[in-house]
Design a protein that fits this description.
Order of helices and strands: HEE
Strand order of the largest sheet: 1-2
Shape: globular
Distance between the termini: 32 Å
Largest sheet: 2 strands, antiparallel
Low-confidence stretches: none
Helix content: 10-25%
Structural class: alpha+beta
Number of strands: 2
Radius of gyration: 13 Å
Oligomer: single chain
Number of helices: 1
């Protein structure tokens, strides 16, 4: 559906997204419940997508540090 749009696309899950489904459709790999973190430099701008969701809950949270393993 978004393929015809020529602009760069970065996806981040919303607070109601299910990580395993989001990861399989948008990222295609990784631990199903791991946070979906993404960064990319587009035309000199560093874009960072943070997953602050808490699986099974509506609110989210950011930690001072986050393990990537």
């Amino acid at each position: 559906m978004l393929a015809p749009i020529a602009a760069p696309k970065i996806f981040a899950p919303g607070n109601h997204a299910l990580r395993p489904a989001f990861r399989s459709v948008r990222l295609g790999a990784g631990e199903p419940q791991a946070p979906c973190l993404h960064e990319e430099v587009i035309s000199g701008t560093h874009v960072i997508a943070l997953d602050y969701s808490i699986p099974g809950r509506i609110p989210g949270a950011l930690a001072r540090t986050r393990s990537t393993s």
